[in-house]
Amino acid sequence: MLPILYEALVDAALREDLGRGGDLTSEGTIPPGTRARGEIVARKGGVVAGLDVALHALSRLDPVLRVRRFHADGGRVQDGAVLAGLEGDARALLAAERTALNLLGHLSGIATATREVVTLLEGTRARVVCTRKTTPGLRSLEKYAVRMGGGANHRTGLDDGILIKDNHRRVAGGVRPAVEGARGRAGHMVRIELEVDTIGELEEGLALGVDAFLLDNMTLEELREAVRVTDGRAVLEASGGITPGRARAVAETGVDLLSLGWLTHSAPSLDVALDLTPLDGPPRTSSPDAAAPSSGGP
Amino acid sequence: MLPILYEALVDAALREDLGRGGDLTSEGTIPPGTRARGEIVARKGGVVAGLDVALHALSRLDPVLRVRRFHADGGRVQDGAVLAGLEGDARALLAAERTALNLLGHLSGIATATREVVTLLEGTRARVVCTRKTTPGLRSLEKYAVRMGGGANHRTGLDDGILIKDNHRRVAGGVRPAVEGARGRAGHMVRIELEVDTIGELEEGLALGVDAFLLDNMTLEELREAVRVTDGRAVLEASGGITPGRARAVAETGVDLLSLGWLTHSAPSLDVALDLTPLDGPPRTSSPDAAAPSSGGP
Amino acid sequence: MLPILYEALVDAALREDLGRGGDLTSEGTIPPGTRARGEIVARKGGVVAGLDVALHALSRLDPVLRVRRFHADGGRVQDGAVLAGLEGDARALLAAERTALNLLGHLSGIATATREVVTLLEGTRARVVCTRKTTPGLRSLEKYAVRMGGGANHRTGLDDGILIKDNHRRVAGGVRPAVEGARGRAGHMVRIELEVDTIGELEEGLALGVDAFLLDNMTLEELREAVRVTDGRAVLEASGGITPGRARAVAETGVDLLSLGWLTHSAPSLDVALDLTPLDGPPRTSSPDAAAPSSGGP
Amino acid sequence: MLPILYEALVDAALREDLGRGGDLTSEGTIPPGTRARGEIVARKGGVVAGLDVALHALSRLDPVLRVRRFHADGGRVQDGAVLAGLEGDARALLAAERTALNLLGHLSGIATATREVVTLLEGTRARVVCTRKTTPGLRSLEKYAVRMGGGANHRTGLDDGILIKDNHRRVAGGVRPAVEGARGRAGHMVRIELEVDTIGELEEGLALGVDAFLLDNMTLEELREAVRVTDGRAVLEASGGITPGRARAVAETGVDLLSLGWLTHSAPSLDVALDLTPLDGPPRTSSPDAAAPSSGGP
Amino acid sequence: MLPILYEALVDAALREDLGRGGDLTSEGTIPPGTRARGEIVARKGGVVAGLDVALHALSRLDPVLRVRRFHADGGRVQDGAVLAGLEGDARALLAAERTALNLLGHLSGIATATREVVTLLEGTRARVVCTRKTTPGLRSLEKYAVRMGGGANHRTGLDDGILIKDNHRRVAGGVRPAVEGARGRAGHMVRIELEVDTIGELEEGLALGVDAFLLDNMTLEELREAVRVTDGRAVLEASGGITPGRARAVAETGVDLLSLGWLTHSAPSLDVALDLTPLDGPPRTSSPDAAAPSSGGP
Amino acid sequence: MLPILYEALVDAALREDLGRGGDLTSEGTIPPGTRARGEIVARKGGVVAGLDVALHALSRLDPVLRVRRFHADGGRVQDGAVLAGLEGDARALLAAERTALNLLGHLSGIATATREVVTLLEGTRARVVCTRKTTPGLRSLEKYAVRMGGGANHRTGLDDGILIKDNHRRVAGGVRPAVEGARGRAGHMVRIELEVDTIGELEEGLALGVDAFLLDNMTLEELREAVRVTDGRAVLEASGGITPGRARAVAETGVDLLSLGWLTHSAPSLDVALDLTPLDGPPRTSSPDAAAPSSGGP
User: What ipTM was estimated for this complex?
Assistant: First the structure.
């Protein structure tokens, strides 16, 4: 992902944490110019996403930070894995630590949750897609994290696809006026998708030549029927209440896509940490059990 | 919360969703000037937070939006509760819908999770506090959501409190130099807290007159001993791995604070929705079962 | 178009003109509180676009400006037409005048040029589309102006459609790897278009199931052959050197789209002006010849 | 021109094109790390302006881009001239290509149009000046392009000069109150110019000691009379409807300046392109005919 | 002064004070919805500047604030004067208080210092001008404050006037190349001023037709000689070490301008305060001695 | 201080000075590519603060500027001291000169004033603290300058400490409700301070367990009594009208802190300058008397 797409967010996040006064603790406890060695550690295993972003945050405060990467975004790691080794200015590393970890943990949490569902669907034709239920300001990164987890992206916003939902249909006065109006607004690069609740609505949309359908909260039975009726004429996306426990069954109905809002709005953060030692201290081991301290606290 | 503290975030979030092209679907399906009636509904019960923020997002696109509030931030609601009734421009409501709901669901999710733990601690002296493990760009709002849930805030950033953690101590070369250095940098309004892993470190900190201690990953036994040793001379904060299942027991050790990073980085979003009908359509009922559709999809 | 999509641009443009010192001339020549009546006039006929944006600029400096609109975006007007009547603070109107007119003239120029080509194509199936050759910072507004002129929009940016151009193909090592790679990156809402220079490349792309083709700099003969070969299996876009003089002939080959970069990068501005009189002066007539003065000068 | 004056614009333009999702096409078609060689080519001859800006845009996405410049801003080039040679990351070059070319083409178009008029005036005393009829957000760069074409700049905004136009005069109630008021507001570094429509107004202004006059829409006869009457006591600027065809005649009346709004609001873009080849491909020739493809399309 | 020129600064200042957490004290001590009556008081007499800006800051947090103005910018007031009466939301007034007062006190301090010197010069032809030695971010407002004090503005920045100083002259290699080069870059609206240290340099500049001279650190004798030599052919500005005690004597040499950097970089703030009472409390008197409390503290 | 905390301010300040047109004088007088040697000189002695910030401003326009530092922030220097030697692009140095000096002079002025008072208090227990009476936009830097002068910081804003002032107390209805309310809002890291005017109020606050007291405008007698009554149970801050002449006596009453608003709102700027010579000119000496010219002018 091009840094220009996240630089401003990282700067805002660093400033949000530094406030007006800067890092009182590091300035108070550590002499200027002190150098330290550090390791970014995944306390829990999962799929990495956001390592470049996190390293960018650290480098923003120490422009000559030295970094060795041991893993890359999209890679699966075990509990205690050392993702990167660092050497740089101790104050800068401590000041940027939380910002870097907040981003890395959040994005890796999304990638890990995505991968879990992707793995469940192996052997089916269904792909996992995310939604616009993202955290304000983080959409680009969260959609990137979904891709790192093996999922695909739906629309990135209101302007790069047309999804006619129940609210639109109700206010527009029906499926036909909604679809025909949408077609007039869409350019030739934009696909049109229609949310349907029943097979009847699906058939109405198919007759209108709609490209894709969001099958909202349908039973497995209904989904199978939708696949049968559609017969490859449109993309079918199952949506609504798809938990890991139910995902495989949904996929086996033959739909093309499973969309999961919770990947971006509710996936728990992955537990990541930064462990520092003075540069002239004993070399840090990278074993998981050495990585226990400093996990908690605000 | 003063709107000046969230206006820029809301604008950025709306622009993030509208992109360069605006809301293709609403522009395509709904004639300009169409008016609609809407309800913001909590599909699942919980504690509300961010309703003002969500309404601000909607009003940003329809400056003459009419709003009736049925609940307020900090209130607990049941499944299907109607939080607010709206009447305004249909295109504007649809264009702002997802941004408003993303904020409301995220913040209400944090408030709901906080309240759950606060309720568990009733009758003990312990308070719930959040950490700096927040989503980049959302710290002010997330800390507000914790307060709405009944929790208290720890530092809001690196510049309004001193928390000497293991990394600082290690790089500083011990507890004493770290504490003494920090005291020189702190103004008279800033308290100093020290992360400790053992009772010995706690005693060392008490001897140095430290104001508060973060007791990291201690057993219940150790926490009780810490309370006994401290004897009211400092604030004690238990931290690390405090799940709802373990919170009550931790609180009963007599510590003052339980800090929980997951409140802000991993609490699942509350399921909220906006249901619209054309203004001249039949009046919407507010019963939960009427609020079923349109939950899914990107 | 939602004001949130152009407010920041208008503010930046006003500040760019006001500089640090504000409008020296108006402050020097006109007492504070002086009110004036004004008319926005199209010196030359054309298609209006950006009137709301221009009025927003004027209202930004006089929040209680009174406005009567006589025309709307998308309307065609004659030489000397009065687009809107104004009454407000004289200093504010003068300070915002140039910013408002620069926007209105630029966007109306694009709409006018687009309409000219759209009119030429009447009776054919071809639509006019614009490109990404837009003025930095103005893409949303310029694409809106194209729509007001009767044209359609292609991609609004690099992220809402895939267009494999010669450069991609060359660096990717051929059509097949480029198309297959693109398909993996595209979500299900994103269409894929391929630039081709020959009928052979078109056939290669059709075999790969590409959704649309940009036929670059083809002769009328080649375009006809492309239409025949494609036979409705994909969208065909003619591009390169399409002047008004040649547009009709290109459209009659049967292609779906004519893309014209010059609509947004080279269309001349429409000549618009603001004529002011003191509020207690004689009522302004709206006849074209009354609208002669003040056209020139920096 | 100092980069600090255009960096923010370039960043905004790149982000406008990349959107939230980045360059789908390049990410899909070209493996990360692929390197390419490129040439920035002027398909049509003209005067170069904005090459540094364009290269800044490319370098913004590839910070280690290698560049060789073959021409500089202000230079005149022939059809097919290679302006610069590049070697860098293929994805970055493709992602920044359109932004770089949009800027270069727009500014070179202005410089080229300016040079055309400047050349027509050779041997007269008259200089070409631009106006405040610029594209919102681009004033600094457009005025720079005029200078590169050999023209001079008028005011850069409302705060660095006083130009009393018809609207001011009408609302102020005459020439005398307007000029005297303006003098009170102007500092000693600011000159005062007055727009006049008749020789009588010119004489009134001269009697008031005005520094310069904008002679609006005067005939050649009137312009000559104005020069005679003024007799070197003030700067005379001819304005209004000055086409290339009429410019020489206007200049020969003896006025000091010809101001042309269309240089900045209506000059057509110069046709420039970026041609890429894989780094390990055959070396690109720089001959014009080799530079034919990829001109079109959005 | 148009609010668009200071709105962003005021917002930034409010956010700088509110931080991430908002006004803890007001939120803690005062119930939401509490209303209060307030008075903005000048503890010490002086010249008012920035009252609109200060009221804008207060209204930004309470959009329906009710205000009565008793004085206006540029007015001279006595110790204890009530500048404005307020009625609004107590929390909002307290949260915006310091930002509003910091601006009002700073700008009124500059206006007061300017007026003091202007008064000293009454009866001479000399005007007081400020310099570019302003506080970063506040130039527009500080130059406005100088005008409110009765002074005039020099350049507002590097781009609206040419002032050739010793550094330029030394690097350019002499007066002549510097002046001739500058003339080529200046447009016809821009005046050229030259810093000179000796009468010889002044004569050299006069021979080159320079518009104005900055006479740097000259003795009264030298200044008189400069006036005699120049004989009205250029504007003369005395600069360097002009204290109130020496200003009258400098003015009486016959120079046109006295420039004083310290007006904007070192004028002490005027002591202003906001006194609040609960809305239902006894009416506040406006006598100075009633206005004693709350002057100090951070 | 981390550059991320002042970079945006420096950029804004440079852009404020450069305007839209850039540095006309340097562009006019000095050929591109000219190199110069320079010295930053303190014309008057004092305490340096902001040297890094000033050098950042210069380096922002010449990224390869070569710098030698002869002094550091916090150091005391004599009249004429050379703070740093520079070698770089002449135009860039001249364009950034005023911005750099405005920052350096302003911050050094604050540090110098602070050090003067700190020196007066030597041997007492009292520390000097600043207030929130800072220049809008400069709070972080001004508080840093106070620290460089040897002072300490009070709150940096409304969210990192609680200071109950007279206005709060009056609107809240007394000391007790104000203090108790504040305690509920404060987290465990935030101290509570109360402004008191009388010994009675102090005793009331002590009984409520308040952490610190702002003793507003008390006589020396009252201050001594406050110290006696408090007996070490709280921090005591004297505030209001503390001039250098009175500071020692106030400190000798035994209070902990003296707060001085004028350090940040009224300290005069330190006189600093940049002296340039062409790179191939004679080497500059660093003696004070060589540093005389170019002090004045806008």
Answer: 0.93
